[in-house]
């Protein structure tokens, strides 16, 4: 017993009779030949869409969101212009990639501004100055870290390192 169905049978062996050539497909008006436009390339639009998705997913890495976002914008604009002029397809994908790239870019900028503000408010500049002045002295570096941790804990009312219990 075979797991596959038997092949179709027809006058030409195993394959059915091919349709007669030269006739228009069903539904063509007046029995006339029809003309079909060749498919247009959508590579740029697909690239813009993929880059837009990557920008949106990686906006928190700042560099990923900015780079992917900018490239999604560039490829999206080029793909939209080519699509509008009829030289390419995928206008919707290009537009979606452009919008997602903008969102990823905006998210990265907002994340960068918020992060920089928190860094400055917790004394990040003082920490960097302390570390640069400490040089290779490990005791001074440890003191810089303890001072900055204390500032963060005081600012946000949190404990960064658990206190030892006896």
Descriptive account of the structure:
By secondary structure, the protein is an all-alpha fold. Among the domains are: 43-115; 124-156. It is built from five helices and no strands. Helix 1 (43-57) runs parallel beside helix 3, helix 2 runs antiparallel to helix 3 and helix 4 packs antiparallel against helix 5. The relative contact order is 0.10.
Distance between the termini: 77 Å
**Number of DSSP-assigned strands:** 0
Which series of helices and strands comes N to C?
A: HHHHH
Count of runs of 4 or more consecutive helical residues: 5
Largest sheet: none
Instruction: Name the helicity range.
Output: 55-70%
Descriptive tags:
166 residues, mainly alpha, 59% helix
Short description:
With 166 residues, the chain is mostly helical. It has helices spanning 43-57, 63-84, 91-121, 124-134, 138-156.
List the helices and strands and how they pair.
Layout: H1 43-57, H2 63-84, H3 91-121, H4 124-134, H5 138-156
Helix pairs in contact: 1-2, 1-3, 2-3, 4-5
